[in-house]
Amino acid sequence: MTRKRGDVLNSGAANAVFALIGVAITATISLVALFIKARIDSRAAETQHRHNMEAKEIEHEYSLKRIDKELEDKRRTAAFEKQTSALAKFLSGTISIHRQISGARRERRQDRDDDKYVMTLRSIAPTETQVAFEEVRLSASDPVVSLASELWKHLRGKSVPRGEHLGQYQWIAWDREYWLTRKALIAEFQRESDQFYGFDRSRTPGKSAELLAEEASPDDES
Predict the structure, then answer these.
(1) Which parts of the sequence are annotated with region: Disordered (predicted)?
(2) Which of 11, 52, 95, 153 is the most buried (most CB within 10 A)?
(3) Residue at 46 is within a domain
(4) Which of 147, 37, 171 minimizes the C-alpha distance to 87?
């Protein structure tokens, strides 16, 4: 009887120990699970934070690039508009000088006074147009500057506008070359303008009225 009671006690103690061990194991597993979950959550938070920071850096870099592009576009547009303005002034000045030369030529046909004709040619003031030409040289492309230089040299440096050659044929040849050079200059600038603004002129024939000064028809002289 005493042995059975002892066996029962021993069995109860063993069960209690096993129960405690089970509780301890369960608690340990729970703690380990909580620890693992905490680590996972921490890493997930770190990963999310890193992704957020990377996204912000990418957004910031994109914003900087966009701002840089906008500034560059504004700079290029301002430079091209400056070139357009300078060329418009130059073309306006050259057409004014050409009209003055043509007017003096017509007066000479009427009064036959060569001395007066030469004095009139020499009295034509080129200062404003010269300034506009210098602005074109500073702001325009090489092809435009080259054609503008050719036009300016033809208008001021050749013998006809200086009154050194008074013949009809010299005048006709000079006048024709003036218009050809002027039209070549306008065509080159229009080509660059179309390229700059992405405009297809073949679909919309005509000239840019805002750009170029009024053009007179070549003077016919008999």
Answers:
(1) 198-222
(2) 95
(3) no
(4) 147
Separation between Cα atoms, residue 98 and residue 161, nearest integer Å: 9
210, part of any domain: no
SS3 of residue 34 by DSSP: helix
Residue from 213, 208, 206, 186 nearest 197 by CA: 208
Residue (of 113, 186, 120, 174) closest to 147 by Cα position: 186
Three-state SS across 38-100?
Answer: HHHHHHHHHHHHHHHHHHHHHHHHHHHHHHHHHHHHHHHHHHHHHHHHHHHHHHHHHHHHHHH
DSSP state of 216: P
In a domain, 220, yes or no: no
Containing structural domain, residue 176: 79-203
pLDDT digits (tens, 9 = 90+) for 162-221: 777 788 888 899 999 999 999 999 999 888 888 887 765 544 444 443 445 444 445 444
Map tokens 């002027």 to a residue: 182
61-94 residue pLDDT tens: 666 666 666 666 677 677 778 888 889 999 999 9
Task: Give pTM, 2 decimals.
Answer: 0.62
125 token code pair: 């003031």
Q: Give the other-Cβ count within 10 Å of 168's Cβ.
A: 11
Helical (H) or strand (E) element with 23:
helix 2-111
Q: In whole angstroms, what is the distance from residue 111 CA to residue 115 CA?
A: 11
194 is a domain residue: yes
Q: Cα 12 from chain centroid?
A: 92
